[in-house]
Amino acid sequence: MAVKKQTVPKRIGRLIRSFLHPQVLLHPFRMLHYYGYSHVLERQKMVLGRDVRLAPNTSFRNGERIELGDQVQLGEYTALWAGRSTSWIRIGARTTFGPNCYVTAADYGLAAGTRITDQEMRERDVIIGPDCWIGTKTIITAGVTLGEGCVIGAGSVVTRDIPAGAIAAGVPARVLRMRG
After folding, report:
1. Per-residue model confidence (pLDDT) at position 138
2. 3-state class (DSSP) for residue 116
3. Which residues contact 59 (CB under 8 A, 6 or more apart)?
4. Where are the domains of the chain?
5. Among 16-25, 47-56, 121-130, which stretch is predicted with the lowest mean pLDDT?
6. Quick one: how far is CA 88 from the chain centroid?
7. What SS3 state is found at 10?
8. CA–CA separation, 142 and 30 (whole Å)
9. What is the pLDDT of residue 1?
10. The pTM is what?
11. Residue among 43, 47, 53 at smallest CA distance from 68
12. Quick one: DSSP state of residue 46?
């Protein structure tokens, strides 16, 4: 079977048409809109300490209930989602997050016979003490408290409280040992 060779002018024409497609031309505006409501506008509502460092692609929801202490660092693609009405995310001074971390202060109910998204959200504060180190791709769920100086291993899912000075990892995260 012979393979048809495309001529150079046809290939260039297809390339030009792909750039001029209306959805391609509108996509940068969609990205700007998303960045505006997930980072810029929410950041203005947050309580920020001194010298906080946020990667430009971090994402926030309900910024009026997010508080970051002095010198907190959030890595690339980290998302902080406070509750819609009551629950807070509070992060102590000098805590550092690696890239791709996710913290949520709310989740849906799990009652049978009702669509999950139709159920009332359960909101619980997330408190992360000072001087913690949160590894890449860590997930911290609603209602969790991390004590001062915790280290959470990369890829962990934290579903319960971790005491001060503990090194924890896993799915779900469990204390492996104490620092020191």
Report:
1. 98
2. helix
3. 38, 39, 77, 78, 79, 80
4. 46-178
5. 16-25
6. 15
7. helix
8. 30
9. 59
10. 0.82
11. 47
12. S
What is the SS3 assignment for 56?
Answer: coil
Q: pLDDT tens-digit profile of 59-97?
A: 999 999 999 999 999 999 999 999 999 999 999 999 999
Q: Are 102 and 116 in contact (CB under 8 A)?
A: no
Strands 121-123 and 106-108: antiparallel
Provide CB contacts within 8 A for 26, sequence distance 6+: none
Contact 83, 104 (CB under 8 A): no
Q: Which one is the CATH code of 46-178: 2.160.10.10, 3.90.380.10, 2.40.128.20, 3.40.50.720?
A: 2.160.10.10
Q: Do the Cβ atoms of 164 and 147 come closer than 8 Å?
A: yes
Contact (CB, 8 A) for 52 and 97: no
Query: Cα separation of 26 and 118, whole Å?
Result: 32
pLDDT in tens, 121-169: 899 999 999 999 999 999 999 999 999 999 999 999 999 999 999 999 9
**Residue 122, SS3?**
strand
* Residue 34 pLDDT exceeds 70: no
H or E stretch covering 42: helix 41-45
